[in-house]
Design a protein that fits this description.
Elements (H helix, E strand, L loop, with lengths): L21 H26 L5 H24 L16 H31 L5 H27 L1
Helix pairs in contact: 1-2, 3-4
Length: about 160
């Protein structure tokens, strides 16, 4: 009878999903992240209107670098190699709180959009679309945050 093989050691950084260890994951994430940040910096340097092009490139590349590195890491990491990672995150209590909050927020959005559309149609009120969407998006995010906290508190 063969004995089950011991699972690979877990770490905070994890292993690459495509094979290879932690070093492969870190190197690939860094290379892809640098490419993404450089592309965004170059795009902004090309499209920007004020200041020196190299300065616009450097600022955008540096500011976007952490997120640009974490994005490929999140897509390429093998979850089973992470310390403390939940096996099935979709079955966690946080996922239930998220689902409850998202469901309630969606109902609020449908009601608000319906009432708003009726009011704007009947009153012929004209508003700046960009500002309206910023305010509405902020309210939706606040609504979701409140509903998430209420769901969390209800389960406590």
């Amino acid at each position: 009878m063969s004995q089950p093989t011991a699972s690979a050691p877990k770490s905070n950084i994890g292993r690459a999903r495509f094979g290879g260890g932690t070093a492969a994951l870190v190197i690939v994430s860094l290379v892809i992240g640098l490419a993404i940040s450089s592309g965004l910096g170059a795009l902004y340097a090309w499209l920007g209107e004020t200041g020196e092009g190299w300065m616009r490139f450097a600022i955008v590349a540096i500011v976007t670098l952490p997120v640009s590195i974490m994005l490929p890491w999140a897509l390429l990491v093998d979850r089973s190699s992470l310390e403390g990672a939940v096996d099935r995150p979709e079955d966690s209590v946080e996922a239930r709180w998220y689902s409850k909050a998202a469901e309630g927020t969606m109902h609020d959005v449908l009601i608000t959009v319906g009432i708003g559309a009726a009011l704007f149609s009947f009153t012929q009120l004209q508003v700046d679309t960009g500002m309206l969407l910023i305010v509405f998006g902020t309210l939706v995010m606040a609504d979701f945050g409140v509903r998430y906290q209420l769901a969390k508190r209800a389960d406590a």
